[in-house]
Amino acid sequence: MNAEINRQLRVLVVDDKAFVRTMTGRVLQTAGVENVAYAADGKEAIEYIKRANPRVGLVFCDLMMPDMDGVEVVRHVAELDHKPAFVFISGANAALLSTAADMARARGFLVLGAIEKPISIEAVRAMLAKLDGVRPTRAAPASLSLTPADLQRGLDANQIVLHYQPKISLSTRSIEGFECLARWQHPDHGLVPPGQFVALAEESGLIKPLSDRVMSLALKQCAAWNKAGLSTKLSINISAHLLVDLGMPDRIAKEAADQGLDPKQIVLEITETGVFRDAADTLDILARLHMKGFALSIDDFGTGYSSMEQLRRVPFAELKIDRAFVNGAGQNQKAKAILQSSAALGHNLGLSVVAEGAETKEDWDLLAGLGVDVVQGYFVAKPMAAESVLAWCEKWTSGTAAKL
Ligand code: C2E
Ligand code: CA
Ligand code: CA
Questions:
Q1: Are strands 295-301 and 266-271 parallel, antiparallel or unpaired?
Q2: Per-residue model confidence (pLDDT) at position 135
Q3: What is the count of structural domains for the chain?
């Protein structure tokens, strides 16, 4: 722990009970924090955070308070121009603490965690240590403020490239396929991830040219791998915005045929949130893609709406469980329950169940225990450039797989 940082850090303790404030303050001082301030309710806390100079760096906030509860405090502090980090202190149950922490993160706060009462010196030290760890990288990855005109230029200059991430069978460890993930090779910003430009494309009407580019690159790559002796499936993300384009199934089918590909090699991943914008046209498109032989996958399963209805109406072949329920599920009862139920649901419907976002051996083992069919995630490999794929496959089949 960095004692110097703790000496300079101003911590505000917010709790309606005087003895809890005093206790927390004492524990903080023992942990080396010299600058502790107190507020007996939310209103006082907000006033203090507004005025304090030097700024409040960290707030220890009680969740259950009579006038304004901790959730409301976070909501009001979010409106200020200064955003301190938060630790929640509470006798509340773990599920509520975790909801509160997610809420604060969604409002843009750094949340170090929650401490149950009575507060121990070890717990406080652990929180302060986390603050040391994150401080240098505190800023969120800068949003690049790219414009539609930039993206148009990027498309014109062929700067969209695809990276490929393997999908592995849990029972046989064989390579089931790859998911292609778009990146923008930007001359000034380097390799820009899709989080920075897919939504921009969707909002600005550029999603069609972007998707056309992705589709064409992906199909060409798949054909090239076939020639090189790697006959594997390729998964392609389909934006919900394309599910209104009735000509799309014929175009993709023609392009696949032009490349000499069997549509059975192609999996189209569709996020469940996107499926029913216009039920008639969407079902028209999905039914025809299915008839042409493409496999349909319901992507990010568990994060969208009305997914049951979609599972009933759309001929999906694969259910892809979102990584929110996969990574670390072993330590999170709720994530584990959702994971388990989603896998069972997929199997009961006769679908292949894929889990994305497996980062550790523990994730892998849990998924194996649940009978999940296919795994994708950093534990196996991060997305890689097309040029690296053949060598990776070679390495995987000749040794890595056996070590799992
Ligand atoms: P997605 O379809 O859920 O893709 C999986 C994302 O999870 C990828 O992020 C991948 O790099 C990441 N990932 C894989 N394994 C792990 C892991 O073990 N841990 C963690 N933390 N992350 C992992 P990426 O490449 O940044 O893509 C983000 C999203 O952008 C994709 O989410 C997809 O919705 C969208 N996207 C990517 N390429 C395309 C595209 O060509 N077209 C469309 N419409 N959307 C795309
Ligand atoms: Ca996907
Ligand atoms: Ca996902």
A1: parallel
A2: 47
A3: 2
Based on the fold, state whether residues 29 and 158 are members of the same structural domain: no
What's the pTM?
A: 0.78
Asked whether residue 169 falls in the same domain as residue 302, the answer is yes
Residues 171, 276 share a domain: yes
- Does some domain include residue 140? no
Backbone dihedral region for residue 328 (phi beyond 0: left; psi -120 to 50: alpha; all else: beta): left
Largest Cα separation within the chain, whole Å, is: 75
Q: Which ligand is nearest to the CA of 274?
A: 1
| CATH classification at residue 125 | 3.40.50.2300
Q: How far apart are CA 73 and CA 67, in angstroms?
A: 10
Overall residue count recorded for the chain in this entry: 404
Ligand 1 pocket test, candidate residues 211, 322, 356, 364, most atoms within 8 A of CB: 356
Give the per-residue pLDDT at 140: 41
50 in the same domain as 18: yes
- The pLDDT of residue 97 is 84
- Residue 86, SS3 per DSSP: strand
Which portions of the chain are predicted below pLDDT 70?
A: 1-6, 133-143, 272-278, 305-306, 401-403
Q: Is residue 39 part of a domain?
A: yes
Which residues share a beta bridge with 376? 356
At 138, the amino acid letter reads R
Count of C-beta atoms within a 10 Å radius of residue 138: 9
From the CA of 202, give the closest atom in ligand 1.
44
> What residue ranges in 187-334 does DSSP mark as E strands?
190-192, 233-238, 266-271, 295-301, 318-321
Domain boundary among 73, 99, 129: 129
Q: Which residues line ligand 1 (CB under 6 A)?
A: 165, 181-182, 193-195, 198, 214, 237, 239, 269, 299-300, 323, 327, 356-359, 376-378, 383
The pLDDT score that the predictor gives to residue 287 is: 94
What local confidence, expressed as pLDDT, does residue 305 receive? Answer: 61
CB 355 within 8 A of CB 321: yes
Last residue of a domain, one of 129, 159, 174: 129
Q: Are residues 318 and 391 in the same domain?
A: yes
> Residue 304 is part of a domain; what is its CATH number?
3.20.20.450
Q: Show the tokens assigned to 152.
A: 């148009």
Ligand nearest to the CA of 321: 3
Containing structural domain, residue 218: 148-403
Q: Quote the pLDDT of residue 115.
A: 87
